[in-house]
Amino acid sequence: MIEIRSLFFDYGNVINDNSQLTPAYFRLIGEFFVPRLGGTREAWEEANRATFRDVQERRLARLNAWDDATGDLKRQEYLEHLDWLRSMLDVLSIAGPASDDECVALAAEANAWIMLQSQTPFPGAVATINDLALSYGLYTASEGLSTQLARHLNAIGLGGKFETLYGPDLVNTPKQSLLYYERIFRHARIDPTAALVIDDSIEALRNAKAAGAHTVFVSPAVASADGVDGVIRTVAELPALLRRLE
Amino acid sequence: MSEIMATFIYRLQLTDFEMLHRDHTPFEVDVLDKHFAYLERLAGEGVVLLAGRTLTTDKTTFGIVIFEAASEAEAQRIMDNDPAVANGVMRAELFPFRIALARDGLEMPAPAEAQG
């Protein structure tokens, strides 16, 4: 038996169904950029497809080179936005914004707008989280920035249900870092042994466990997993699991 | 015939409450300016009855907006269009609300049951 007082939710693939995100994302890129920078919707979609993998690989390389002592999360986000939009502009042979700052601001606005159009919470997730908020302190522990998380959760009516929306920006630590959860628990002044982290990433849960928390793996396909306190298919199954654990 | 209005409240909390203890970023300054202008405009139009915030500077800090709308859907739109909410600088939660008492001078809408 364990006592849980705080729940830390990942957002993508835990609260929100990201499998719905990709097709909408590609479609909405053109919808956002065509009126601002020209080109056609199809060309923007194709440019994103053509550059997506390389942009992600460069992003991961930067995160892998992250130094917990000196890393600057806001700089990481800046470079990510810049790389994303400049790469597409190169493919499209469109000049785009003159300065890097303008380019980053436009990319950030685009990403925020596109993501907001593409929110599809899993069935039952909103009602379950509303109920859990009556009994537990709720937090996010996600890869998205806190402002992005606030936009998404406001949009699905859950913005006020969480104590703090932890993304990497509030603790200046990327989620991939071994220190991510430790810094969140310290920032929130939470006893990790009374915290439960709910995530679809085994690696993230391993780090959460190392920081002292209990962990639940969310997977529609896997019935059991080593090193976690429970496995659920969706967040809607979390209350039943909590009753078994507590 | 005038539209029957109901009263709502939304509670606002800073996404990063440490904003209260550090310089605001240009993005935050821009959003907060737009947030204030938005509520000021709605107050001028008679939609917002009252808006304000606690003077605490820790995690308990919150703001409220009490306003009128013709339906819950419209109330939701008003909250969602608040620039602080739309840009994620604040988290928000909407509730139906009824003013039970008010000082003279603050107009109170009739209770919802009596409006139908």
Would you give an account of this structure?
The complex is a heterodimer of chains A (246) and B (116). Chain A has 246 residues and is of the alpha/beta class. Helices cover 52% and strands 10% of the residues of chain A. Chain A has helices at residues 21-37, 41-64, 73-92, 100-117, 125-132, 146-155, 168-171, 180-188, 202-210, 238-245, and strands spanning 6-9, 137-141, 164-166, 195-199, 214-218, 230-232. Chain A has a six-stranded parallel sheet, with helices on both faces. In chain A, helix 6 (146-155) links the parallel strand 2 (137-141) and strand 3. In chain A, helix 1 (21-37) packs across helix 4. Chain A is globular. The model of chain A has no long low-confidence stretch (mean pLDDT 93). Chain B is 31% helix and 25% strand. In chain B, strands 2-3-1-4 form a four-stranded antiparallel sheet. Chain B is globular, with a radius of gyration of 15 Å. Residues 112-116 of chain B have low confidence and may be disordered.
